[in-house]
């Protein structure tokens, strides 16, 4: 199954339209992502919605395997996934977690990610990338053995961590039975005062669970957008990849 985080307004878009309803290639971003997830034949896909929720629901309505949960307060990515807990409480298997603003992700990439999680019997896998502009992304901290040690959100980075080129895409796959107990241990003791989904990975590591970080071969797949200029750049890449 998949959980898509689509509750935000996207203030820097300077628009009343929810961020995920801005078009890329003639379709709302969220529809591009939804169509790709539908093509994977997942058991269910849950969209976490908030701002202008009825508009987002209207765009995605009519699909039997799609459902919606509301995040009333924007208390972070971890909190958003908590809102979907009812949907995965009795689910067994792999749960993809992704943002609703990454329309360049490929079905094949997600299928490989799920296959790797099952092969390792991993509690959690995070996907990283190395884009030209790493501003605002959380940093991937690896140990001397190359294994992931931590994900540090941009606002919490020290002067050394800020220079790490490998950053978090916000794409994860979790084992369903490992996710809920880890979410229950989240706290908001960070610079933003939010519940981070990144901390789920930290908790799984501390609990001795199998975790991994996989870097995208093509960084473009992990790109999202925060303002009209970034959306324009994203759309140019979208058409380039479709050729």
Query: How many strands, which pairing sense, and closed or not: the largest β-sheet?
Result: 7 strands, mixed
**How many alpha or pi helices?**
8
Helix content: 25-40%
Structural category: alpha/beta
- Runs in which pLDDT lies below 50 for 5 or more consecutive residues are none
Mean pLDDT: 96
Strand order of the largest sheet: 5-4-1-6-10-7-11
**N→C terminal distance:** 30 Å
Shape: globular
Proportion of residues in extended strands:
15-25%
Record field, number of beta strands: 11
Order of helices and strands: EEEHEHEHHEHEEEEHHEH
Backbone CA Rg: 17 Å
List keywords for this structure.
globular; 11 strands; 22% strand; 8 helices; seven-stranded mixed beta sheet; 243 residues; two-stranded antiparallel sheet
Describe this structure in words.
Helices cover 31% and strands 22% of the residues. By secondary structure, the chain is α/β, with parallel strands linked by helices. The model has no long low-confidence stretch (mean pLDDT 96). It has helices at 29-39, 53-60, 77-83, 85-88, 107-120, 176-183, 198-206, 228-242, and strands spanning 2-6, 23-24, 27-28, 45-49, 66-70, 94-99, 124-129, 139-142, 148-152, 167-175, 211-215. A seven-stranded mixed beta sheet has the order 5-4-1-6-10-7-11, with helices on both faces. It has a two-stranded antiparallel ribbon with strand order 2-3. Helix 6 (176-183) packs across helix 7 (198-206). It is built from eight helices and eleven strands.
